[in-house]
From TrEMBL:
Keyword Metal-binding: no
Bilayer-spanning residue ranges: 400-418
Protein name: Ig-like domain-containing protein
GO molecular-function terms, A-Z: MHC class II protein binding; protein tyrosine kinase binding
Keyword Cell membrane listed: no
Signal peptide residues on this chain, from the entry's feature table: 1-17
Provenance organism: Poecilia mexicana
One of the protein's GO biological processes: positive regulation of ERK1 and ERK2 cascade
Cellular component aspect of the GO annotation: external side of plasma membrane; membrane raft
A Pfam family reported for this protein in Swiss-Prot or TrEMBL: V-set
Span of domain Ig-like: 29-125, 141-294
Amino acid sequence: MLVESLIFGMMVFLTKGVRSEMTEVVGEEGSQVVLPCVCEAAQCDPAAITWSKQSKGTVWKKESSGLQYWGSNWFNRENSRVQCPHSKFGKGDYSLEINRLTKDDAGLYTCKVEIKGHLTNKQIMLRVIEASVSPSTPMWGDNVSLRCSVTPWPENAVVSWMLNRQPFTPKTGRVVGVQASDKLARTWTCSVHKSSNIWRALVELSVAGIIQPAKQDTKLYAALGSSFKMPCVFSPSLSPKAALVEKLDSGFQIFNNFSASSSSWDKSIVIQEVVPENEGRYRCGGTVERRRLSQTMQLVVAKIVKSKKKGTTMLSCQLSDPSEVTSYEWVHVSYDINGTELVGPVQYGQTVPVKEDFGEWTCRYSGTNGLLGNVTTQVHLMAGLSGEKSSGVSSNTGTVIGLSFLLVILLLILAQMYKNHRRRRRILQYPALETIVHTISNEREEREKDRVKK
């Protein structure tokens, strides 16, 4: 009984003033983590601090005298990546910072703080979470493995996956397999659930193939009369063969007012001036490693149509396919005599009445994800002047008709006078004939007189 009492007393003596705590920290590979170690005593200075890692020995140590040194396994090799911020010592913060976290950093760390004989042990379990993809840059159609790892792995943990922050079901588990496509070339998130804790890591899945247009049946918008680039861009690591852009509804490779890029991976086509016939569906395609890759797109042509309604100028924003448009916005821009740009009030709607129909009008059309495109028109005449000119022409119509009638009569009189003149000239050319005509005429008059007398 005496011996047991002595042993119990020695255990109490040895453990007097020692307090131990346990904390768990999870960091994503490549990031920065802070292993917390904060003095909670009323007086924290001077203090002796020792950071150590299980099976790796001392990481960093500071004696109460102020002397500091790194452990042999961390000096030089890790000193630039692992540090204690000395500026916080005066506040009793002895936390350990680790930059560019790696899997090798995972494990159990201990922070020992000794102040005037009182020893505090703080244990920190550092887990490193990582999401990875293999192969790193797959091509369209390749089988891809997405892996989620936590070092050391927590017991009873469950893994789920998200694609662009949306649940990707029914894929669960540390490793999932997918087939590379443009729809899956996005940000993947692996979430590790344990009790009430959730740890996440991100990985980008980049798929080699056609990167522009980014997805099938992409709608592209161009203003009538403008220059436009029809995209057909492959991943820079690829050199596609027989690559071209073709118009699907015509069945031939586009030419006319088009020019092509000379790059081996950029096969885009530039339309020098967009015309209504350019509207329609196109296909960007090419062969890579005996595999045919293609992406479709649709060119939507926008224009502004002017009209008159009850003396008011109307501007209408018209698109060959307005299915994605949710709103129209009109902006009026004019310039004063000094060339200063003046922006008028904004109007809304597909068709708007114009009060200031001089200067520049721009129609901006937007969809659910923001601005789709814009089209601009120039107007040079004011509505008031146009109306007065039209009215003047209408009031002078009667005068014009009357003058035209008088001109016709005058021309007829002149024509008759000319005919008489020509006839007299023909008779004067034969004097003898004229004498005979006069003699006959005189004899006829004499006979008429003799009849009257009888």
